[in-house]
């Protein structure tokens, strides 16, 4: 680490941030600080891991690949010792998104790496990449951004800081190298097969992307940088890439027959086995999207993550916009959403210390409370199922997969029977934590079922392990016989998941 590494003794530690990108080919870490609202990059680390190489046809990650990843995470953990947990964000992409045993990797990672790992969707990955480019270099028109990774390739079109089209395609330089250029073998036929497969993968997004249009095409990350460096080194261009340059490089590579013997300017040893597959994907993109020129920009996902972390420090959370957009799209009853949210967060504030809940837990509970009725747009019968389905499958920029899944789970069981066996096994959240948030949401919905602002008395709650005492007052309960009966049923529902809800005076109101 250089002299800019943050020290525990420095007074401005809160301004330091780190973003870690667990990619399919390499793991990257960038460290930065915020100065007057701008991000200053201080340090970068990159380690080749090739996780995607260890992903078999059954989508099971090999033990060797897991060990490589854990080894690098242990190195990164050493660098990040001075950092507070909220100053580090760790993003996992294609391979851990796809691997059936990703939970095994995440569980073992906790033993060597003390920061939570967020697995994000392909669209979220594309959004981060676009944000990294948009903040790194201003452009007044519309941009197409392409990032060829180890297991997937991300495409984004946007204007300014606003992404307009996002897509992640299941094609990457590591996976295509194994499939089409095994043992480094090169031939024209292999190239053509790889290009055709990439074109087939791209076909579903072509019309939408071409309809959006762009004035500048941008390539990011290692694959495009390597191709650009080689073509510049060959004297074919000094800046922008064109299809003729890519085809000239392809012909040169075909003549070499094997990647191991390649000797080209700008081609490092660790990229030799990946250059053909990356080039094939880029040629396919040029062909189908009819790209005339493409420039390289040295910013990508991790820079996008840093900028979003900076925004959150300034209380500009894109997740708020995502929630508001969903509320508008499904015409949510905002008065009711506000009632339920306020009640849930009031109860949360009274029990958070006993249950060791966090500010992030409060935000997720609040969002679940404002979105629990999005499924009414489909049908009022089984609204909890409809709402959960929408939340599980909607594109929600800013949310990682587990955050989105947690909100969907809370909403799925906000009423009726709780099916404990259907609550997912989370990596970022413990089951008792999920149950506590679920209890708060269920009570908030139950207490506001009459949709009135003037109904509830002063609420008082006390908590223990798997226990909540809710004080409403016997006199008030006596006036709300239906609600009292519903609370009695809620006690029975929660008892089935080993949770005790105590409501003093309830037994005196509801006949046994």
Automatic annotation (TrEMBL):
Domain Ppx/GppA phosphatase C-terminal: from-to ranges: 318-491
Superkingdom, natural source: Bacteria
Domain (Ppx/GppA phosphatase N-terminal): residue spans on this chain: 30-311
MF terms (GO), sorted A to Z: exopolyphosphatase activity
Signal peptide, first to last residue: none
Keyword match Hydrolase: yes
Any one Gene Ontology BP term: polyphosphate catabolic process
InterPro entries membership: ATPase_NBD, GppA/Ppx_hydrolase, Ppx_GppA_C, Ppx_GppA_N, PyroPPase_GppA_Ppx
UniProt keyword list: Hydrolase
Keyword rRNA-binding among UniProt keywords: no
Pfam families in UniProt: Ppx-GppA (PF02541), Ppx-GppA_III (PF21447)
Name of the protein in question: Exopolyphosphatase / guanosine-5'-triphosphate,3'-diphosphate pyrophosphatase
Species of the source: Rheinheimera pacifica
């Amino acid at each position: 680490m250089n002299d800019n590494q943050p020290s525990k003794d420095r007074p401005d530690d809160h301004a330091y941030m780190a973003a870690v990108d667990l990619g399919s080919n390499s793991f990257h870490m960038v460290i930065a600080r915020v100065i007057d609202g701008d991000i200053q990059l201080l340090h970068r680390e990159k380690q080749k891991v090739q996780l995607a190489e260890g992903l078999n046809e059954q989508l099971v990650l090999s033990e060797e690949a897991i060990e490589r990843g854990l080894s690098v995470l242990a190195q990164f953990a050493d660098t990040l010792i001075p950092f507070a947990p909220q100053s580090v964000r760790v993003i996992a992409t294609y391979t851990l998104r796809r691997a059936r045993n990703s939970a095994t990797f995440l569980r073992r990672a906790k033993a060597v790496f003390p920061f939570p790992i967020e697995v994000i969707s392909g669209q979220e990955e594309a959004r981060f990449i676009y944000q990294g480019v948009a903040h790194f270099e201003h452009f007044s028109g519309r941009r197409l951004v392409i990032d060829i990774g180890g297991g997937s390739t991300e495409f984004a079109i946007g204007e300014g800081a606003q992404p307009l089209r996002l897509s992640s395609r299941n094609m990457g330089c590591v996976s295509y190298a194994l499939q089409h250029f095994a043992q480094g073998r090169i031939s024209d036929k292999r190239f053509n097969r790889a290009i055709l497969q990439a074109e087939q993968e791209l076909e579903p997004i072509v019309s939408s992307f071409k309809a959006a249009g762009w004035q500048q095409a941008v390539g990011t990350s290692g694959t495009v940088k390597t191709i650009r460096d080689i073509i510049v080194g060959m004297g074919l261009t000094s800046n922008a890439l064109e299809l003729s340059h890519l085809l000239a490089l392809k012909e040169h590579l075909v003549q070499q027959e094997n990647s191991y013997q390649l000797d080209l300017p700008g081609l490092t040893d660790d990229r030799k086995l990946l250059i053909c597959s990356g080039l094939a994907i880029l040629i396919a993109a040029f062909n189908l999207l009819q790209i005339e020129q493409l420039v390289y920009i040295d910013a990508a996902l991790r820079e996008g993550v840093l900028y979003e972390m900076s925004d959150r420090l300034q209380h500009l959370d894109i997740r708020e916009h995502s929630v508001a957009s969903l509320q508008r799209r499904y015409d949510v009853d905002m008065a009711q959403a506000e009632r339920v949210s306020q009640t849930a967060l009031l109860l949360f504030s009274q029990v958070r210390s006993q249950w060791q809940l966090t500010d992030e837990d409060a935000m997720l509970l609040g969002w679940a409370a404002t979105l629990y009725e999005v499924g009414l747009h489909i049908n009022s019968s089984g609204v909890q199922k409809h709402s959960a389905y929408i939340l599980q499958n909607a594109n929600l920029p800013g949310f990682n997969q587990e955050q989105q899944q947690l909100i969907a789970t809370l909403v799925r069981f906000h009423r009726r029977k709780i099916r404990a066996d259907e609550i997912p096994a989370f990596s970022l959240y413990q089951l008792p934590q999920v149950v506590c948030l679920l209890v708060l949401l269920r009570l908030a919905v139950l207490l506001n079922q009459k949709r009135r602002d003037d109904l509830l008395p002063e609420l008082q709650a006390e908590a223990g392990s798997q226990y909540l005492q809710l004080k409403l007052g016997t006199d008030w309960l006596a006036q709300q016989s239906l609600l009292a009966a519903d609370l009695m049923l809620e006690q029975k529902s929660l008892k089935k998941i080993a949770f005790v809800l105590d409501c003093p005076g309830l037994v005196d109101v509801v006949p046994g």
